């Protein structure tokens, strides 16, 4: 059975899907789900069984892995996720990461992995 935090967290996730852009259908599904979980994370409603920062195999792996990565990107530039979402209104390109943060998404992912390596 789901606890109250879990239920509210799921509502935040689903509410995000209502207003977020999806690159006109071109954005990776993992990124869409990651943004929804990022919003949930920032609301303080992350789930105890989510991965810790630095875990995962790919930046767009899905849900919590991507949410933690987006949190890292947003720490480099406050407002990053909002800017990324805005750019996704009419289409999607990995180059959006370069536009906003000056680094490719692959570079950001390896910086992220290096930062949290134990
Ligand atoms: Zn979802």
User: Are there runs of 5+ residues with pLDDT below 50, and where?
Assistant: none
Classify the beta-strand content into a percent band. Answer: under 5%
Number of domains: 1
Largest sheet: none
The overall pLDDT average reads: 94
Q: How would you characterize this protein structure?
A:
It holds the Pfam family BSP. This is NtPRp27. The chain is mainly α and 118 residues long. The protein has one domain. Helix content is 60%, strand content 0%. Helix 2 (29-42) crosses helix 3 (63-76). It is globular. Zinc ion is lined by residues 13, 17, 33, 36.
List keywords for this structure.
single chain; 118 residues; mainly alpha; 6 helices; 60% helix; 0% strand; binds zinc ion
How do the strands and helices of this protein lay out in sequence?
Elements: H1 4-19, H2 29-42, H3 63-76, H4 80-87, H5 95-101, H6 105-116
The structure holds zinc ion.
Short description:
This is NtPRp27. By secondary structure, the protein is mainly α.
């Amino acid at each position: 059975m789901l606890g109250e935090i879990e239920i509210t967290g799921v509502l935040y996730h689903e509410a995000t899907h209502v207003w977020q852009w999806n690159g006109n259908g071109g954005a990776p599904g993992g990124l869409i789900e990651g943004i929804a979980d990022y919003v949930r994370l920032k609301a303080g409603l992350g789930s105890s069984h989510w991965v810790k920062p630095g875990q995962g195999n790919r930046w767009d792996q899905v849900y919590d892995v991507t949410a933690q990565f987006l949190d890292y990107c947003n720490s480099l530039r406050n407002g990053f996720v909002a800017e990324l979402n805005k750019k996704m209104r009419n289409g999607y390109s990995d180059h959006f990461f370069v536009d906003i943060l000056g680094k490719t998404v692959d570079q950001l992912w390896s910086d992220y992995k290096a930062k949290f390596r134990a």
